[in-house]
Task: inverse folding
């Protein structure tokens, strides 16, 4: 839908687009509502990643619905929109079930655009001039990767798909590997680390990018497996980071209810490698929640620099926010869900009756009903 | 399960069996024969009431021993309740499933004196299904939030 159509569609609400989203998507990735301190930390990190070559591991911590995924989308959008900064952003999600680092590798590779990687590789291949030098500098441990990446540029679609499957860490049959002239599968942590390290070297040598930014969401899933498996994941991540002293930023996002618990749950090996500051997203108090709602509405208002409450009455917004923050505070997701419900009701009443006569009590009842729906991790 | 422990033994039972039953009740249910508590030697409703010479009422040392068993039981129950409450708090804060090893890690950081080892946390989450629900192997959430 064009933006002109959007403006006329929501004009009766004083908005140029719908402000409240309950799931993260690309259309809302550029929006940052309030939380100036967090934004300052992110801006500072972005600046640092562009200025310096060294490898970083950063952590993002927040409660359920506190905005971790949005933060990752926001950072990704920033680098996609400003490609001249030379950072290739990848947002991957930790798998729900895993037995080792191979599944983490598969998740990262699933999030990568392999056509883009193959294109970068073809530039690097031309620069190096010989396969021997490429093996020596980029894939010394797993030379088969070069064949697979070359096959990604093949005109034969079947070979291209097989190469893609192999690069993503999925096992091929012997005859399929023979087709690609590949001798073995990617099967253990060492293979995965070698592949990911080669990937960083390709990106850095491509001249188009200087850094790869891997953001791994839902890392708290590593606490849903035996500590021995978690240890294997940590070994993979730290070996990968240690093997690449430059050009890599690894951002690990964890959901955890309390910052102290989060600190206790992070393994010592990862702790010793992280770069501070950590991006923390605690619950919002009533003042912060009000600023958040105002900021979201302001960014979607027809009038630029608008500091009003959109179609809402100020007292209603304050009453709803007070209700939502009365225990420990609230999350952006709860605010988005609550005000999405209210705005939907306003839209319905204004379009059908010409005005909205929702009372504060009715608004709170609507919000409670919307938030009482059982929600899961996947919400 | 020890099938020689019976809550309702007949009066012909040997003193040894009655003794074990009384000690079991004190140690695992916190219950004592009425004479230990009231000191009036009222034997009504006591499982040892059928005996001609009751060694409970006449033996102060034995009464002390039964009180010790009962108090140990109460202390154990109190500790267990505190342990379960703390584990509930850990999971309530986290909101998502956690493997018992990480529940133990957080619980022992928070109250190191309350748990002997991670294994004691494992026992509590595995054997209290009314409080903790296993969502998959070794991973728990609260049965009710």
Result:
């Amino acid at each position: 839908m064009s933006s002109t159509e959007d403006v006329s569609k929501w004009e009766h609400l004083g908005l140029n687009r719908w402000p409240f989203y309950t799931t993260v998507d690309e259309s809302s990735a550029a929006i940052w509502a309030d939380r100036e301190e967090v934004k300052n930390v992110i801006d500072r990190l972005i600046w640092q990643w562009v200025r310096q070559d060294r490898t970083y591991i950063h952590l993002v911590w927040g409660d359920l619905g506190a905005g971790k995924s949005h933060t990752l989308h926001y950072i990704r959008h920033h680098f996609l929109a400003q490609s001249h900064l030379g950072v290739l952003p990848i947002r991957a999600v930790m798998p729900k079930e895993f037995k080792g680092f191979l599944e983490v590798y598969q998740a990262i590779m699933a999030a990568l655009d392999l056509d883009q990687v193959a294109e970068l590789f073809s530039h690097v291949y031309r620069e190096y001039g010989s396969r021997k030098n490429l093996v020596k500098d980029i894939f010394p441990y797993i030379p088969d990767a070069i064949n697979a990446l070359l096959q990604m540029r093949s005109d034969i679609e079947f070979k291209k798909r097989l190469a893609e499957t192999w690069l993503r860490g999925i096992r091929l049959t012997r005859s399929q590997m023979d087709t690609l002239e590949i001798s073995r599968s990617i099967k253990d942590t060492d293979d995965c680390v070698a592949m990911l390290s080669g990937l960083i070297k390709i990106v850095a040598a491509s001249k188009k990018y200087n850094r790869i930014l891997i953001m791994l969401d839902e890392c708290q899933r590593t606490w849903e497996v035996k500590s021995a498996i978690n240890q294997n994941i940590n070994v993979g991540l730290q070996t990968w980071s240690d093997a690449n002293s430059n050009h890599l930023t690894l951002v690990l996002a964890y959901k955890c209810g309390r910052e102290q618990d989060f600190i206790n749950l992070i393994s010592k090996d990862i702790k010793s490698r992280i770069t501070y500051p950590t991006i923390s997203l605690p619950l919002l108090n009533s003042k912060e929640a009000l600023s958040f709602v105002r900021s979201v509405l302001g960014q979607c208002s027809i009038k630029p620099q608008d500091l009003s409450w959109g179609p809402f009455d100020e007292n209603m917004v304050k009453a709803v926010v007070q209700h939502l923050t009365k225990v420990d505070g609230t999350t952006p997701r709860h605010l988005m869900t609550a005000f999405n419900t209210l705005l939907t009701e306003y839209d319905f009443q204004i379009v059908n009756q010409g005005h909205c006569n929702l009372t504060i009590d009715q608004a709170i009842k609507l919000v409670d009903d919307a938030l009482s729906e059982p929600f899961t991790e996947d919400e | 399960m020890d099938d020689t422990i019976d809550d309702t033994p007949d009066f012909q039972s040997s003193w040894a069996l009655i003794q074990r039953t009384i000690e079991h009740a004190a140690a695992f249910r916190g219950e004592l024969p009425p004479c230990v508590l009231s000191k009036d030697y009222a034997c009504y409703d006591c499982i040892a009431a059928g005996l001609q010479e009751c060694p409970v009422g006449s033996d102060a040392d034995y009464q002390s021993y039964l009180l010790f068993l009962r108090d140990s039981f109460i202390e154990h129950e109190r500790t267990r309740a505190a342990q379960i409450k703390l584990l509930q708090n850990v999971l309530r804060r986290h909101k998502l499933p956690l493997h018992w090893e990480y529940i133990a890690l957080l619980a022992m950081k928070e109250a190191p004196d309350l748990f002997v080892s991670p294994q004691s946390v494992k026992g509590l989450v595995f054997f209290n299904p009314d409080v903790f629900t296993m969502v998959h192997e070794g991973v728990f959430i609260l049965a009710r939030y």
